[in-house]
Amino acid sequence: MHRPMEGVRILEVAQFTFVPAAGAVMADWGASIIKIEHAEKGDAQRGLVRVLGYDATGSFAPIMEGPNRSKRSVGLALDRPESRPVFEALVRNSDVFLTNMLPGARRKLGLTLEDVRRINPDIIYVSGSGFGTEGPDADKGGYDATAFWARGGSAFGTTPAGAERISFMPAGAYGDNIGGMTIAGGIAAALYGRATTGQTSEIDVSLLAVGAWATQYTVNMALARGEALPAPSADKQSAAVGNPLTGAYRTSDGRWIQLSMLQAGRYWAEFCSAIGRDDLVEDERFRTDALINQNYAEAFEIFAKVIGAQPLEHWRRALRDIRGQWAVVQDSWDVGNDEALIANGRIAELVDTDGVPRKLVANPVKFDNTPVTITRAPQFAEHTDEVLRELGIDDEELIALKIAGAVT
Fold first, then answer.
1. pLDDT-based confidence at 238, cuts 50/70/90?
2. Which of 37, 95, 177, 358 is most buried per CB count within 10 Å?
3. Taking a C-beta distance cutoff of 8 angstroms, is the pair 278, 272 a contact?
């Protein structure tokens, strides 16, 4: 069973990436997702013209494709009373209700837990929030740059002391995608709980909580110490103190390799031989783990000089078969063409609206060694007629709903 969520029906009233990304994961796992979009404007993310300085328009926009692949889109004016019967029919036919609307908007549109459960008492109600459903910020909105990255501790933890500016997320929708995966896991657990106990669930996942979870080691350390951990040193080599086999080293062509051999003594001879420095194996400064620890700064400088004298491809060949753990610091193109990701079906293929073959990153969970099957994201309101007909609405009613402005 490589699509374990086959037969699960999810109704999504959400936009941007956090929460829709959860729907994308569930779709990868086999669930059927109906995405309700604003009847005139659609998902607000469709209106973004540039993202991170890059063009976000066209028939294949990754900012929409990633979190919305394999879904069906319905344009529904939730603020019009004529749309209510359609919405209620969709709720009755769903296992999960998924939203990231703020509490005030949910109350106004009749989308609260109580509203939805009156229609379908067994539905699993899922909200993605900035700061949780309780506390002083429950009604406030947040993006991953604010709630996850800044407030959740990652921005501080990646910004060197004395820096002129705070570091920014390494990729667009970084916290959103991590949060979406978290929500998908929560939905899977709730579905299991309902199947085994008969009891449904209300779920909330906040970007702040996901951010705190991601930085939990340093947060837990701070709580144990009774004070904040300091910002990373601006001149800190990216190696653990005492172990030069855990550092990042620059190659002659400006690329980087990251070593992570936590047991320095175990891998010392093999690594030194691989880089052409057998003389370091018997070097009195590095004969034992204790001496490596004591003289790690000298070893780091030696390794930096040796590795810096050759291009990345040289080191790919030289280190390919060693037992010690290391990796190339890959850019976005490298990741998209990573042999391991491709071999494991984590780069998935699809066809866009123009019939052009495309690729997207698949969710990281693989079932039964089977590649994931995905389809393109829907165009705005592309499936309105199809979905409403499935609900039993005939053409005459459909035209009436369109005339009333209730559906698109």
1. low
2. 37
3. yes
Residue 273 makes CB contacts below 8 A (sequence gap 6+) with: 281
Cβ atoms of 20 and 68 closer than 8 Å: yes
**Beta carbons of 204 and 127 less than 8 angstroms apart:** yes
Which of 204, 176, 185 has its CA nearest to residue 66? 176
Q: Decide if 84 contacts 111 (C-beta within 8 A).
A: no
Q: What is the mean pLDDT of residues 259-286?
A: 96
Residue 43: which pLDDT band, with cuts at 50, 70 and 90? very high
CA 28 vs. chain centroid, Å, equals 14
With 0-12 CB in 10 A as exposed, 13-18 as middle and 19+ as buried, what is 386? exposed
Which token pair is 399? 């035209």
| Helix (H), strand (E) at residue 24 | helix 20-28
Helices (H), 236-308: 264-274, 289-294, 296-307
Q: In this predicted model, what pLDDT tens digit does every residue of 299-312 receive, in sequence order?
A: 999 999 999 999 99
pLDDT tens for 327-362 read 999 999 999 999 999 999 999 999 999 999 999 999
Structure-token pair, residue 89:
């029919």
Whether residue 285 is predicted with pLDDT greater than 90 in this model: the reply is yes
Round to whole Å and give the CA distance between 169 and 207. 14
Give the Cα separation of 59 and 219 in Å (integer): 43
Across the range 380-404, mean pLDDT stands at 97
Q: How many Å separate Cα 275 from the centre of its chain?
A: 36
CA distance 194 to 12: 19
Tell me the CA distances in angstroms from 3 to 283, 365, 366, 370, 401, one per residue in order. Answer: 55, 11, 10, 9, 35
DSSP H/E element including 205:
strand 202-206
